[in-house]
Amino acid sequence: MFSYIDHLECTQCGQTFPHNQVSKVSDCCGKVLFARYDLPRLRREGSREVFAGREPNMWRFAELMPVTDPAQVVTLGEGGTPLLAATNLQKKLGLQSLFIKEEGLNPTGTFKARGISAAVSKAAELGITGFTMPSAGNAAGAAAAYCARAARPVQVFMPQDAPPANKKESVMAGSQLNLVDGLISDAGRLAVAVAAEQNLFDLSTLKEPYRAEGKKTMGLEIAMQLGWKMPDAIIYPTGGGTGIIGMYKGFQELLELGWIEGTPPKFIAVQPTGCQPIVKAFNEGAATAETWANAATLADGLRVPGPFADYLILQAIRETGGTALAIEDADMVEAMYEIATEEGIIACPEGAATLVGLKQLVQQGFLGADETIVLLNTGSGYKYLDLIRDRN
Ligand SMILES: Cc1ncc(COP(=O)(O)O)c(C=O)c1O
Ligand SMILES: [Zn+2]
Fold first, then answer.
1. Which residues partner with 101 through β-bridges?
2. Of all atoms in ligand 1, which is nearest to the CA of residue 238?
3. Is 104 in the pocket of ligand 1 (CB under 6 A)?
4. Dihedrals φ, ψ of 107, to 5°?
5. What number is the average pLDDT over the span 189-197?
6. Domains of the chain with bracketed CATH
7. Engineering a disulfide at 112: which of 34, 138, 307, 355 sits with its beta carbon 3.0 to 4.6 angstroms away?
């Protein structure tokens, strides 16, 4: 059980780079670098059957993960989350096959654990000793936890009004918390500056190649949990878009390996009306997104006005015949109640946004009753109980 990583590739021009050195964005274009694996060799030597017998966390997919030395893996048991049949909601909406991927069960309560585990592990393997991390909140909490586990310092940067749970978990896990008067984009600029000044490695998503590899495992798991089949659609609450990009990459790798058949699911991006750069770009047929002015939403994870990998998110949506749509904050909170009432899942507002999106798409006829649909609940609602008011 070891990695088949082979090289890194520029997602803009295809130029390749070695993987066994510290990398950020591509030298050629300044764009996202993807990890590429020796898939023909893995196809000859490996089999999808081995995964089932391994510990049920994301590192069971070690062959398709970037870390070459298993001893370097920094883990809290991330991944291996359930794909829950949402039978009550399914019935209510007149659907036949609706699932919720319950990422709230991850360490630190969100899917961010996957990306951070992958990135910190690979960085440790490459000899990096300290980090910076800009975040809407959850990625910072995860970074604090995984860096604690890796015994490496991290400075996290998050907007002043980030959720209290994120501030507290970051402090508890011993990170240095910097509150920024601004948005995640401002936090990002600061994190990069401090990293350069103090010789630290900045973990901004998609500005290093490996967080996406962790997120990719959500796609690998979904395929495995559906009996090595892909769903027809995945509805994803989109901020920086790492999950869409990662899952799409994962499905493409499984297809190339011949371990699944068919076409990748329609990727559907849901964004709040107060910050919808991807929705606007998608509707206008643009290849990249303009920065969204005055971004405001109660879903902190979706308050990303200028996603760095906009072109990759838009490609994933278009190539799979997906779509992008905006929803209201108030509906998101209602949907938190509805998911809990119907399915017993305490979802984060971002995850609840996918249910609002689903209803719109069913009503419009974009999604059919017979389609297999997965909603991605990206995190636990227990981090957001302040949004919930008592009701009698
Ligand atoms: C709970 C939650 N959901 C969704 C997102 C958006 O994720 P992505 O950057 O992959 O689009 C975030 C990002 O902060 C988040 O914390
Ligand atoms: Zn390039």
1. 83, 376
2. 11
3. no
4. -55, 140
5. 96
6. 83-110+211-387 (3.40.50.1100)
7. 138
DSSP code of residue 40: H
User: What are residue 99's DSSP bridge partners?
Assistant: 85, 374
At residue 1, the pLDDT reads 57
Say yes or no: CB of residue 277 within 6 Å of ligand 1: no
> What CA dihedral angle connects 144, 145, 147 and 153, to 10 degrees?
40
Residues in CB range of 53: below 8 A, 6 or more apart: none
Please give the pLDDT value at position 251: 98
Q: Which residue has the tokens 């990009």?
A: 245
Task: Tell me the sheet residues that pair with 327.
Answer: 272
Would you tell me how many other CB atoms lie within 10 Å of the CB of residue 248? 26
| Residue 12: CB atoms within 10 Å | 16
- Whether ligand 1 lies within 6 angstroms of the CB of 134 is answered as no
- Counting Cβ atoms within 10 Å, is residue 45 exposed (0-12), middle (13-18) or buried (19+)? exposed
| Closest ligand 1 atom, residue 184 Cα | 14
Residue identified by tokens 């008067």 is 181
Amino acid at position 65, single letter: M
Model pTM score: 0.98
Query: Within 10 A of 27 (CB to CB), how many other CB atoms are there?
Result: 11
Q: Is 238 in the pocket of ligand 1 (CB under 6 A)?
A: yes
Identify the DSSP state of 219.
H
Ligand 1 centroid to residue 239 C-alpha, Å: 5
**pLDDT score at 361:** 98
CB–CB of 132/158 below 8 Å? no
